[in-house]
Amino acid sequence: xxxxxxxxxxxxYAEAVKYYANQNSDIAQAFxxxxxxxxxxxxxxxxxxxxxxxxxxxxxxxxxxxxxxxxLSLEIFGFRCVPSxxxxxxxxxRVEITHAVYQKDSDGDLVCYVLPHLNVWARKKKFxxxxxxxxxxxxxxxxxxxxxxxxxPAPLEQ
Length: 158
What we know:
The chain is an alpha+beta fold. The protein is built from three helices and twelve strands. A four-stranded mixed β-sheet has the order 11-10-7-12, with helices on one face. Strand 1 and strand 2 (56-57) form a beta hairpin. The protein is globular and about 65 Å long. The termini are far apart. The model has no long low-confidence stretch (mean pLDDT 76).
């Protein structure tokens, strides 16, 4: 399969490589490797990626920074409200989508409404992305982006 970078995309790519090289040469090389990996994946199966225009498809890059952990924290006006949770990036193994549900008590009475949310699991540690006021379609989009970015299997639905 033949591929061509749009001239604007090629200029943006060169600018990004220059930017990352000024930050850290290892990150610049990781970025280049990520682009080459994306080109390879597209050439292997281009129809796997969503078509955004005629003969144009979008492929998200896999993570290329040298960060080795993820964290989840809540900040309001710059103040950390709860201690942040952290986990090694290599331990992230799945994403779960939890749809909006009503919970009932043992008598069958409605007790509370549980918002739709995402859970990112790193081994047995759960990072819940809740209270972000995302619609279910936004939640599904975010799950898809996280899965692509982190190179994880398809999400589990609860």
